[in-house]
């Protein structure tokens, strides 16, 4: 199935790459019972077969006739559907042409995606989303990498072409910071490592390898560009005034979003971004090579985990790129607008969920192995919240997007209410839970999720400081996961998912619990570790996730940049500097490990990769953020008062008379 990706196709064809061993020549069996009556599978002779490599599957076009039963707002039918990636002939006679052809390529796979796609009822959005046919404007604009075009594109992001005031300001800041401060030897070495990890595709930089240890004989997928891992690299480049690699990354990964993805005959929802991609070189005839981008949507990943965070990071990075370069033209492009909408629609689609938080499976974010975080993990919620805020900022406001923007606003409001109210714990709240009544059947219940007080873990009773508090890791019916997850808490500060008071309190807690969360290497991914029976049952006896290792309480230097940004936002740069100092003393000597083990982060992780790029980039980004406070301030969000207005204070008739929003507002307004 994956071989189909390497097929070289001629542009402007309506092509569906068949999945050989799936029924109906590649169309997964839909859950809809009347599938057969909807589908005609035709070979379309208009379209050229792929070149004659033996492994190339034949190219077919499927025509789909939708029946009455299809929801008017549901996924588009095949004739309107999505794009494909086209590879580029590179290598010996490197042509520098990248035909990211898009067009209105038919893909019945999408039409019969087994996911339910409830679209925002929005005609114009559908027009962009579903338009098709050979004569319409391509769904995704072509990136023409002809030399002239490359130059034209590059020029847009070159310093000399700065048109935008913001960009000017930022660059001035970057330059004066550069002039004021000589790079240390450690920083110089780190920059060299970061640059050495850059991956090119047809001559252009498109991302960074996850790890770049020349002595690693078994890199698994660490020789790929991970979407989440590239974010700190991208921030480092942007803060240095180098936007090209980020722009290329955003556009290339946007193309991958449209890929036909199949995991055992099942097609995940449209809009999904891959966890990672690899640039592969495929031999052609005549000593030529073809470079292809080969994405992994989870179909190869260990555990087949869904990369839910990828699309959210993509949107967050897009906004950061525009903020720091001033290249707002990028977001105005039709394909970029469509990309944002696809991701947001996937997240906003209706399901059986009762909560505004996003329901995901275990391992769908930075913690990409089973760690008992299925359900509504905080990390995903905070990324979801900031991606919604970014999308709202970047979506072109017109008739075509107004319903989507309305849906975004409603979700933002409901989500922040939910998290602020139900995920928050501090001494007072734990005492409340400790005295909870259970089995309350009514809409008035105080203990809405039926949490049995016995659930409060012993460690927490001793651990929670007088000052400070945090957002718990997960909330489900009758279940609160009280573990402290660092990334979710830090990103809640950065995105203002928490109230200003909560954000302050989280940093107070980190300061109070420094020896547990930072100790000898910043920062612990979560606290505490799962031990004994908990480890056995919850991780499924995962030998990589033994207590205080890897995802199970290991210390991850990459988290330094999110910590620095959160500290800067809250005026606590002292904390960030202290943590950076600690990291700086060990990281270069230890060869930039991926993570550290033990309760206080004393040892290099048992199976940690060395020269892990996001450890390097996390450090560089932290330094650059501190040196460029104005640029840093473009990367976080303040409280949104309009959202506070939209909020209906659901708790107004409960025992806690004021909901956190009103509290937040009154705190800010006094
Ligand atoms: C590990 C991490 C994941 C990261 C990947 C590549 O799987 O858990 O977050 O993206 O390595 O570095």
Automatic annotation (TrEMBL):
GO terms for biological process: sucrose catabolic process. It holds the Pfam family Glyco_hydro_100. GO terms for cellular component: mitochondrion. It is an enzyme of class 3 (hydrolase). The keyword Transcription regulation does not apply. Its EC number is 3.2.1.26. Signal peptide: none annotated. It comes from the Eukaryota. One of its GO terms (molecular function) is sucrose alpha-glucosidase activity. It catalyses: Hydrolysis of terminal non-reducing beta-D-fructofuranoside residues in beta-D-fructofuranosides. Keywords: Carbohydrate metabolism, Glycosidase, Hydrolase. Invertase that cleaves sucrose into glucose and fructose. Belongs to the glycosyl hydrolase 100 family. This is Alkaline/neutral invertase. It comes from Sesamum indicum (Oriental sesame). The lineage of its organism: Eukaryota, Viridiplantae, Streptophyta, Embryophyta, Tracheophyta.
């Amino acid at each position: 199935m994956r071989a189909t990706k390497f097929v070289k196709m001629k542009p402007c064809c309506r092509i569906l790459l068949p999945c050989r061993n799936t029924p109906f020549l590649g169309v997964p069996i839909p859950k809809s019972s009347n599938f057969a009556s909807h589908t005609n599978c035709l070979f379309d002779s208009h379209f050229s077969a792929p070149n004659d490599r033996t492994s190339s599957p034949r190219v077919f076009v499927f025509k789909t006739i939708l029946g009455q039963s299809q929801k008017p707002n549901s996924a588009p039918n095949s004739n309107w559907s999505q794009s494909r990636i086209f590879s580029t002939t590179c290598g010996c006679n490197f042509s520098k042409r990248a035909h990211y052809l898009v067009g209105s390529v038919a893909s019945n796979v999408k039409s019969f995606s087994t996911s339910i796609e409830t679209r925002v009822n929005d005609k114009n959005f559908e027009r962009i989303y579903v338009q098709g046919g050979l004569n319409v404007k391509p769904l995704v604009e072509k990136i023409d990498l002809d030399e002239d075009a490359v130059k034209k594109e590059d020029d847009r992001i070159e310093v000399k072409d700065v048109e935008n005031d913001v960009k000017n300001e930022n660059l001035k800041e970057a330059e004066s910071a550069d002039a004021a401060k000589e790079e240390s030897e450690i920083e110089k070495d780190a920059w060299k490592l970061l640059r050495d990890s850059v991956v090119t595709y047809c001559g252009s930089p498109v991302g960074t390898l996850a790890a770049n240890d020349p002595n690693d004989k078994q890199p698994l997928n660490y020789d790929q560009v991970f979407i989440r891992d590239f974010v700190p690299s991208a921030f480092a480049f942007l803060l240095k005034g180098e936007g090209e690699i980020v722009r290329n990354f955003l556009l290339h990964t946007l193309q991958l979003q449209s890929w036909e993805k199949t995991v055992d005959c099942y097609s995940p929802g449209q809009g999904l971004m891959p966890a990672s991609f690899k640039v592969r070189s495929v031999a052609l005839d005549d000593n030529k090579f073809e470079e292809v981008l080969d994405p992994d949507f989870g179909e190869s990943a260990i555990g087949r985990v869904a990369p839910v965070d990828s699309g959210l990071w993509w949107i967050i990075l897009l906004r950061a790129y525009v903020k720091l370069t001033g290249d707002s033209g990028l977001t105005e492009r039709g394909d970029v607008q469509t990309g944002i909408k696809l991701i947001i629609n996937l997240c906003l689609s209706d399901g059986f969920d009762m909560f505004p938080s996003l329901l995901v499976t275990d391992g769908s974010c930075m913690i990409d192995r089973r760690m008992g975080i299925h359900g509504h993990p905080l990390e995903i919620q905070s990324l979801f919240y900031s991606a919604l805020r970014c999308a709202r900022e970047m979506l072109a406001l017109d008739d075509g997007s107004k319903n989507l923007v309305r849906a975004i606003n409603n979700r933002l409001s409901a989500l922040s209410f939910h998290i602020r109210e139900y995920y928050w714990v501090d001494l007072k709240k734990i005492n409340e839970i400790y005295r909870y009544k259970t089995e309350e059947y009514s809409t008035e219940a105080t203990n809405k999720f039926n949490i049995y007080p016995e659930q409060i873990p012993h460690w927490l009773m001793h651990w929670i400081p007088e000052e400070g508090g945090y957002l718990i890791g997960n909330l489900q019916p009758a279940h609160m996961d009280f573990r402290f997850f660092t990334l979710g808490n830090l990103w809640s500060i950065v995105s203002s998912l928490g109230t200003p008071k909560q954000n302050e309190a989280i940093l107070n807690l980190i300061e109070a619990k420094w020896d547990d969360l930072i100790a000898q290497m910043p920062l612990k991914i979560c606290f505490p570790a799962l031990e004994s029976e908990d480890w056995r049952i919850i991780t499924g006896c995962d030998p990589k996730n033994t207590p205080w290792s890897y995802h199970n309480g290991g210390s991850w230097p990459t988290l330094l940049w999110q910590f620095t940004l959160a500290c800067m936002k809250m005026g606590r740069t002292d904390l960030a500097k202290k943590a950076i100092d600690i990291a700086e003393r060990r990281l270069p000597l230890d060869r930039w490990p991926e993570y550290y083990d033990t309760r206080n982060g004393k040892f290099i992780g048992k199976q940690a990769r060395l020269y892990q790029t996001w450890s390097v980039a996390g450090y560089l980004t932290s330094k650059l953020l501190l040196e460029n406070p104005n640029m840093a301030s473009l990367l976080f969000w303040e409280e949104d008062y309009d959202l506070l207005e939209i909020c209906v204070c659901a708790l107004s008739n409960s025992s806690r008379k004021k909901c956190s929003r009103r509290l937040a507002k009154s705190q800010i307004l006094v």
